[in-house]
Amino acid sequence: MTSPKSSNLTVGARLRVEIEKIAHGGHFIARHEGAVIFVRHAIPGESVEIEITSVGASFNRADVVEVFTASADRVSAPCRYAHRLGCGGCDFQHIALTRQRELKGQVITEQFSRIAKMDLAVEVEEVGAPLGWRTRCSANSTKNGELGFYQSRSHKVIAVTDCRILVPEMKYSELAQRGVKANQRLEISISNTGERTIATASSREDSAMRLSEGPEVAHYRVGEKIFDVSQKSFWQSHKDAPRVLSEAVLAFSQLEPGDHVLDLYGGVGLFTAVILPIIGAAGSVEIVEGSKSATADARSNFAQNSNVTVITADVAKAITRFADADVIVLDPPREGAGKEVINNCARLTPRAIVYVACDPAALARDTGYLRENGYVLAEIRAFDLFPMTHHIECVARFVPDKVS
User: Fold this and answer.
1) pTM across the whole model
2) Given 79, 163, 358, 394, which residue is catalytic?
3) Is 303 exposed, middle or buried (0-12, 13-18, 19+ CB in 10 A)?
4) In a shared domain, residues 140 and 125
5) Any catalytic annotation for residue 163?
6) Is residue 328 part of a domain?
């Protein structure tokens, strides 16, 4: 999909196009005189006027500025900041909820077809209400101390007084009304035990975040387990994600008493907590995580469990030290695990590999690597843990290919 060099598209140009299909990253594809354009705030099948926002050798970007023929799935965004010149966070608020999930399913299908060369259809499962689900956010302040979020593909801060996807308990509106110091980066979180944490740093300097409000270590309850989670440690944003993902991982792992399990990119030990009761005292879990903050939390969370070992290390390096594993669970960052880690996972000959992924493209790529190593995709589920946005969370189960 290379745009012809003769294309005369320029930034700011407006033209009428037909929207074809969704693309990875929440954009929608349109074409003009052979040029491919990735369009924001569109829906497949619509006829719209767009404004070009950037041009490139292989594709161009644009925003919808007027809709001539609207999709039946186009709705009024519940948030007044959800438009092309507003907050860049929620890029799907203009789409009916059922259609949002259908489009996300199409993205998964397309990525597996293009990258993994597989035919795959998956239904993206609804998890909860589309608003009031997010418990963690990164915000910024303007030069006047107004709290807000970045505009899409920009460092311009849009002042936002009410974020509709944040949980009400965070009391974001009160924070926005109170105002903050000018030109700040803020990380705001609230645990499901009611502890709000705010860390700040200057947006004009590459400085570390410093705690300005709340406890250094917050507490999150999942089932009967209460987790220590430091401000610097990763925790899932959707209020129901820890439970939903833990249940999916547990079901796909098909654990047995005495199993040796590797929990790679294991963070503070979310999945280890549901693994332990099944494998029992005869089993063991090794958590491998690069974040010192997260592994400190994990050691605290499992201080009473002698069969849990926590390793602070790069997963790609640490995995070479292991000789075997019955089950491997991995929850890598957005870029995925990569070939080296996947090759070593297969080398350990586990009977199951359970992969939690927040990017279907990375999952599709690593699925290909697993296939090269004799592991096939047995099951996959997708969850709408980021409603009103293009993001998707998947859990996949891989098993040895009987043929190989």
Assistant:
1) 0.95
2) 358
3) exposed
4) no
5) no
6) yes
85-108 per-residue burial string, b: 16 or more CB within 10 A, e: under 16: ebbbbbbbbbbebebbbbbbbbbb
**In the block, residue with structure tokens 């270590």:** 217
Residue at a domain's end among 54, 74, 94: 74
Both 217 and 337 in one domain: the answer is: no
Confidence of residue 403 (pLDDT cuts 50, 70, 90): low
Q: Cβ–Cβ contacts within 10 Å for residue 321, how many?
A: 11
User: Same domain for 289 and 360?
Assistant: yes
- Identify the DSSP state of 116: I
C-beta atoms surrounding 304 within 10 Å = 6
Spatial separation of the C-alpha atoms in residues 324 and 326, rounded to whole Å: 7
Cα separations in angstroms, 396 against 43, 250, 360, 364: 28, 12, 11, 10
Decide which of 58, 74, 90 is a domain's last residue.
74
Q: Which residues pair with 285 in a beta bridge?
A: 261, 308
In a shared domain, residues 181 and 35? no
3-class secondary-structure state, position 301: helix
Q: How confident is the model at residue 7 (pLDDT cuts 50, 70, 90)?
A: low
Is residue 359 one of the residues assigned to a domain?
A: yes
Do 146 and 179 form a contact (C-beta atoms < 8 A)?
A: yes
Q: How many CB atoms lie within 10 A of CB 9?
A: 18
* CA dihedral of residues 27, 76, 100, 96 (deg, nearest 10): -150
| Share of residues in the chain with pLDDT > 90 (%) | 95
SS3 277: helix
Place 59 in a pLDDT band, splitting at 50, 70 and 90. Answer: confident
Q: What is the pLDDT of residues 175-227, one digit of tens each?
A: 999 989 999 999 999 999 999 999 999 999 888 999 999 999 999 999 999 99
CB 191 within 8 A of CB 204: no
Work out the average pLDDT over 230-236. Answer: 98
Residues 141, 123 within the same domain: no
Supply φ then ψ for residue 251, to 5 degrees: -65, -40
Q: Which residues contact 351 (CB under 8 A, 6 or more apart)?
A: 326, 327, 399, 400
Q: Collapsing DSSP states into helix, strand and coil, what is residue 3?
A: coil
Domain membership of residue 22 as a residue range: 1-74
Q: Give the number of domains in the chain.
A: 3
If you ran DSSP here, which 8-state letter would residue 115 be given? I
Indicate whether 280 and 306 sit together in one domain.
Answer: yes
